[in-house]
Specification:
Regulatory_HutP, RNA-binding, 28% strand, Hut operon positive regulatory protein HutP, alpha+beta, RNA binding, Regulatory_HutP_sf
Length: 147
């Protein structure tokens, strides 16, 4: 949990902001929210989308690699071992809620939101999974780690 002394009054939490980014439906909404978070709260953020089967996304490292690349390319974190380590743990924590109680052949479409205030990082994943179009499930996961 964030230290109340370091949270600006009225500032949205990193976790909620990451979830909001993952839930945006258009690039325009996504960009607008990222600009707002940066200008109003000095909160850096990034978004990525990807799809595939659980085996393709999780076991090959595609999900983690995509999140790391997004974090570097958007300036969410610098290339520092400690911060990369925290990002990976937050990503794994978020993915635990995504890849649970499902067949490894299920297909996924995921959108991932990242936010940081330089002390903490939040990773939110929202998406859908299914083995068949009539069996689609919405899923959401959240990871939060100290940098």
């Amino acid at each position: 949990m964030q230290d109340p002394k370091t949270v600006k009054k009225g500032r949205p939490s990193l976790e909620r902001s990451a979830i909001r980014l993952a839930l945006t439906e258009t690039r325009e909404d996504e960009d607008k929210l990222k600009r707002f978070l940066l200008e109003a709260y000095d909160m850096r953020s990034g978004v990525t989308e990807l799809g595939g089967t659980e085996t393709n996304l999780q076991h090959t490292g595609k999900l983690t690699n995509s999140v790391i690349a997004t974090a570097f390319n958007t300036g969410v974190i610098p290339k520092e071992a400690r911060k990369i380590h925290a990002l990976i743990h937050a990503t794994l924590e978020a993915s635990n809620s995504i890849f649970i109680h499902n067949n490894s052949n299920a297909s996924y479409v995921l959108k991932i939101g990242l936010t940081t205030d330089t002390e903490w990082i939040a990773v939110a994943i929202y998406g859908r999974s299914s083995l068949h179009p009539l069996l689609e499930h919405a899923r959401v996961g959240l990871g939060f780690m100290h940098l």
